[in-house]
Design goal:
Chain lengths: 703, 148
């Protein structure tokens, strides 16, 4: 028997695990009790055994031989598959320019830096991440305001834990990373005095909350602006921090006067006294950390919503403060994204970035998917080739049926995946990927202050290859000067050079981290600026954003009503209920794991949460199949009655398809994105689409 | 009883880690790979159910001191073992399901071999110096088996 210490990538990943292997077979995965995650595990990570040994895994490169979607494939060699892909890319680059190639991936799974390095190395600006409604707005809003991403300090490295924890549109208890881990939050919660849950739903941690603010979906900016106004009016802000370290306080004070509590309460449906109490706790219950969820990013006003909340962190003096919000220093290996950023970016802007200007901002310039699709459906069809890694656009992006049509207008699509995914079924070449249990790599997702080793525990099935090897081999063929590494190990050695270590050594160490008091109050040192300050144009926390002003956007946070809302009579008369999609499900990760029998058993079918009163009104009982309909289309999910929300709200699970049914209808019948809109208005700065605040109607499905 | 199974329901987040950890540790098979209706569940010695928003309950053998399953089992297959743990004697069990009916927690699980299975406190793991699978996996820290 052998025990392999490695890093789980069951979600964004990051939990250290110990894999027990006997005769080349995994017989146990357990958490590493000596690691940052204390040996805890989630259902997804534990069930990874069934991913490695899943009979549905892809095991050979495949070439399409019938019409697209016919399911007729021919097994080919890697050499031939890579040859076909690189030929297509070369041909298109010569005829239309490199920008006609789109390199895309799904949510961050630890290969982001390879995706971006590859795209840059072949000269295309059109990199696709499903990020403009998830993570990129957060990075951008923090970047504009503070000069870098802030994280919740659940660690107490200065001996101080948060006194007040706020979860705002977030379920950190399910699924890790995005900077923080579930277990850090849950253990910090044991120590915190106050927990405030801001969410339309009474989510799993509600019983631990001192206050639950059931905010109307999509109105979070109004809530934050109202709190800012109250805190300023009541003189509860941190005068010292504001005077020394903030830019534009007077302008912010004037702006938030437009949001008196009475008005804010009407907009958000949160009673005035609750808003007051929450604002007071955030200010006087410091140190406070505010965990911002994706729900705040997936709307038509993402940047200003996040900026309003970041201003709240700033004026209450919680930035860079122990137990508050801190910009972590990277591990001794340095920022891993340097591996991508060291390759010069192409001179052209990504598609859509001329309009949504923050998408063009360094370091992570990327294209706007809705603009790409609009062009594929009704424009010049600028994108000719797509190389898609671990992503299902038909499930991930708004208006699934149009996304599918747009994909059909792409001349050539290659896909890398573990399974014959909905996207893979309509591709021209499909490459089999190795699972995290089957690869060597450096894990560097969002937690930032550490990197850890992903160490191969077992051989991949058939001829599956790790993502890093696939990128390396494609890179070698198309842009060899940027891919000079003989093999993956050499490429990993290169990425570890700043830590003066090599893969073989790192693999044994397992982890490189920076912890301790060195993280805090860096603005008071020369770390960012000589004499102190933040890495922003003014050197201060920019409550008033000079960058947004220069780009022609509102430099101060404001509220914007959701595009579809109960206040819009025309929509509300036909679609009377508020639809929100995409809340976390603890045993699935986006469209992943419906093939995993242990996880699928926990919940075989998609569930739509409906308030019992509303269900009664529409003659719906627990477990009934229900149609949910918007102007874009309708889908079926099973009713799960849930009393912990306003009866006007309907919550649909996202990313559902049925791998056991190969017909294309199986990617649409329960897919929440059949309901969502890919048409403007988007967030004006970064192009976010709305997933969390739409209008719908529901009715019982017969049979 | 020589041990205590403590579950802090207020801390539980309903993540089902315990269920999956238990299934894998005990090699309990999943049902099914493509789910027919109605939705059958494969066996697991600990399960989580949402009672109301944010409130969960756990379906797990409490190893009752006066255990109705032991009293009612027609074949005498359920007995008390070490520490007062309730155990199934496989060779005597005929899988009649009386124990499932009389258990106030519906904890006994019908296994694919037709016999009944129950939480065994992960005793084999204890011999390896490890905590019970559900306890060590739980991110909320809400399961504790004390006094073994």
């Amino acid at each position: 028997m052998q025990e392999v210490k490695t890093t789980c990538k069951g979600c964004h990943g990051g939990c250290r695990v110990i894999v027990s292997v006997k005769d080349g077979q995994i017989f146990r995965i357990r958490g590493d009790g000596e690691s940052f995650t204390l040996g805890t595990m989630c259902a997804k990570g534990l069930a990874s055994v069934y991913e490695h040994a899943n009979p549905n895994r892809l095991i050979k490169p495949l070439k399409r031989v019938g019409p697209r979607g016919s399911g007729r494939w021919k097994e080919i060699s890697w050499e031939e598959a890579l040859g076909i892909i690189t030929n297509e890319m070369r041909k298109v680059a010569e005829k239309y320019g490199e920008e006609a190639i789109l390199i895309g991936q799904g949510t961050g799974r630890g290969y982001n830096r390879y995706t971006l390095r590859f795209a840059r190395s072949i000269g295309t600006p059109n990199v696709l991440f499903p990020a403009h409604f998830c993570f990129a707005p957060k990075m951008a809003a923090f970047g504009l305001t503070v000069g870098g991403r802030l994280f919740c300090d659940y660690h107490g490295w200065a001996g101080v834990y948060p006194r007040t924890i706020v979860h705002w549109g977030k379920q950190l208890e399910y699924t890790n990373a995005d900077g923080e881990m579930a277990v850090w939050f849950l253990r910090a919660l044991d120590k915190a005095e106050n927990f405030i849950l801001i969410d339309p739903r009474a989510t799993a941690t509600v019983r631990r909350a001192r206050l639950w603010l059931p905010v109307r979906p999509g109105t979070d900016a109004a809530l934050a602006l109202g709190m800012l106004n109250f805190i300023i009016q009541e003189n509860l802000y941190d005068r010292d921090f504001v005077e020394k370290w903030c830019h534009g306080f007077d302008q912010l004070r004037e702006r938030v006067k437009e949001y008196p509590l009475e008005k804010v309460s009407k907009i958000t449906w949160v009673p005035e006294d609750k808003i007051k109490e929450a604002a007071r706790l955030i200010a006087v219950g410091s140190p406070t950390c505010i965990q911002m969820g994706e729900a705040l990013e997936a709307n038509n006003n993402s940047i200003q919503t996040l900026r309003a909340i970041i201003c709240l962190m700033a004026i209450t003096g919680n930035i860079e403060r122990p137990g508050g919000m801190v910009n972590w220093l990277p591990s001794p290996a340095g920022p891993m994204e340097d591996f991508a950023l060291e390759v010069p970016p192409p001179s052209q802007k990504p598609l859509g970035a001329e309009k949504f200007k923050l998408l063009a901002m360094p370091p992570f310039a990327m294209c706007h998917w809705e603009s790409v699709c609009e062009d594929l459906l009704n424009g010049e069809r600028k994108i000719k080739v797509m190389h898609l890694v671990g992503t299902n656009p038909v499930l991930a992006y708004a208006n699934a049926r149009e996304v599918f049509q747009a994909l059909m207008n792409v001349d050539f699509i290659s896909v890398v995946d573990l399974y014959m995914s909905p996207t893979a079924r309509f591709a021209d070449i499909v490459l089999p990927a190795a699972h995290w249990l089957e690869m060597d790599d450096i894990y560097d997702m969002h937690p930032r202050f550490f990197v850890s080793a992903i160490v191969k525990a077992v051989e991949p099935p058939g001829e599956a290859w790790p993502d890093n090897k696939i990128f390396l081999e494609l890179g070698k063929r198309l842009a060899p000067s940027f891919w000079p590494f003989k093999n993956v190990e050499e490429m990993l050695d290169y990425q570890l050079r700043k830590a003066n270590t090599k893969w073989e050594e790192f693999k044994k160490m397992g982890i490189l981290s920076t912890t301790g008091v060195v993280h805090y109050e860096k603005h008071k040192t020369d770390y960012w600026r000589k004499g102190g300050g933040f890495p922003t144009p003014t050197g201060k926390v920019e409550l008033y954003s000079t960058i947004l002003e220069e780009l022609g956007y509102d430099p101060l946070p404001h509220y914007r009503e959701p595009s579809e809302s109960p206040l819009n009579e025309e929509i509300a008369s036909n679609y009377p209920l508020i639809l929100t999609t995409g809340g976390r499900v603890p045993y699935y990760f986006h469209s992943q794991y419906r093939q995993n029998p242990v996880l699928r058993e926990l919940q075989p079918y998609p569930l739509v949460q409906i308030h019992p009163e509303t269900a009664k009104r529409f003659g719906i009982s627990e477990g009934d199949w229900v149609w949910i309909e918007t102007p874009r289309g309708r889908i079926k999910q099973k009713a799960a009655l849930f009393s912990g929300m306003n009866p006007q709200i309907v919550v649909v699970q996202a990313s559902w398809y049925y791998p056991e049914d190969p017909s294309p209808e199986s990617f649409f019948i329960s897919n929440a994105n059949v309901l969502t809109s890919n048409h403007p208005p988007f967030d004006p700065c970064i192009g976010s689409t709305t997933f969390r605040a739409l209008m719908c109607k529901i009715y019982k499905a017969e049979g | 009883m020589g041990f205590k199974l403590l579950i802090n329901r207020d801390k539980c987040i309903g993540c089902h880690s315990c269920t999956v950890a238990c299934k894998l540790e005990h090699n309990l098979p999943p049902y099914p790979s493509s789910p027919p209706e109605p939705e059958p569940k494969g066996p697991a010695f600990i399960r989580v159910k949402q009672e109301e928003p944010g409130r969960f309950s756990h379906i797990v053998c409490r190893h009752c001191e006066r255990a109705p399953c032991i009293e009612e089992c027609p074949t005498g297959a359920l007995v008390k073992g070490p520490w007062g743990m309730t155990q199934v004697l496989k060779e005597r069990c005929v899988g009649c399901g009386v124990c499932i009916k009389v258990c106030p927690f519906e904890a006994p699980q019908l296994l694919p071999d037709g016999t009944i299975g129950l939480c065994d406190l992960c005793l084999p793991l204890r011999d390896e110096g490890l905590l019970p699978a559900c306890q060590s996996a739980c991110p909320a820290g809400c399961i504790e088996i004390k006094g073994l």
